[in-house]
Amino acid sequence: MIERGEFRRSAPWMLAGAAIVIGLAAVIGLAALYSGAVNVAADVPHSKSVYWLLTTARERSVEARAKSVAVPNDLEDPARVAAGAGLYAEMCAGCHLAPGAEETEIAQGLYPAAPQLAHGTDKTPAQEFWIIKHGIKASGMAAWGKTHDDEMIWNMVAFLQKLPSLSPEDYNALVASAPEDHDEMMKEHKGGDHHHDDNHD
């Protein structure tokens, strides 16, 4: 059993040893980065530890930032869902696919693979909105908020709530019913443009 006095005398050496180990690990890590040893090829999966680290960071980041998103109470509105269907077919189906669709060439080449949203997700509407608006770094997920306003993004979120229940025929019919002029339709439906603030960090 280590006496208290002995522990106090050995503590500085233990801390110094830990600092040396951490320092060596940092040096080795930097050397690996600069040497090109880290393989960034999209056709080579991450190691389990790196995959866990990146996935955990992504999930926690989205959860934290989506808490400030105010969800509109009309996501069931057929006009929203129809508008979102058209946007999804135009912007999202190439990577996230449509009901019954085979994997596209781009979907096959993405790493990490884009989730097939017709199978549903574990994300809340607020989290889906945040992801669509801000994108995900180094994942292939674009930040659509740079080119689409909040109303358009909420239309996509509204459609995502229906997507898992759609057959291929239902999906095609809904896409066909989408308005050609989205901006004009939303002005008529909502009485003007509306925006929902969220955390931009």
What does this structure look like?
This protein is mainly alpha-helical and 201 residues long. It has 2 domains: 1-39; 68-190, Cytochrome c-like domain (Cytochrome Bc1 Complex, Chain D, domain 2, Orthogonal Bundle), CATH 1.10.760. It contains 9 helices and no strands. It has helices spanning 4-35, 48-66, 78-91, 93-96, 105-109, 125-134, 150-162, 168-176, 182-190. Helix 3 packs across helix 7 (150-162) and helix 3 (78-91) crosses helix 8 (168-176). It is elongated, with a radius of gyration of 24 Å.
Report a brief summary of the structure.
This protein has 201 residues and is mainly α. It has helices at 4-35, 48-66, 78-91, 93-96, 105-109, 125-134, 150-162, 168-176, 182-190.
Percent helix among the residues?
A: 55-70%
Taken from the alpha-carbon principal axes, the silhouette is elongated
CATH architecture of the largest domain: Orthogonal Bundle
Q: Nearest-angstrom radius of gyration?
A: 24 Å
What is the highest CATH level, the class of the largest domain?
Mainly Alpha
CATH level-4 homologous superfamily of the largest domain: Cytochrome c-like domain
User: Helical segment tally?
Assistant: 9
Give the uncertain stretches in residue-range form.
Answer: 191-196
* CATH topology descriptor of the largest domain: Cytochrome Bc1 Complex, Chain D, domain 2
One letter per element, helices H and strands E, the order comes to: HHHHHHHHH
What is the total tally of β strands? 0
State the distance separating the first and last CA atoms.
50 Å
- The quaternary structure here is single chain
Query: What is the number of domains?
Result: 2
| Average pLDDT | 86
Give the amount of beta strand, in percent: under 5%
Q: What would you call the structural class?
A: mainly alpha
Largest sheet entry = none
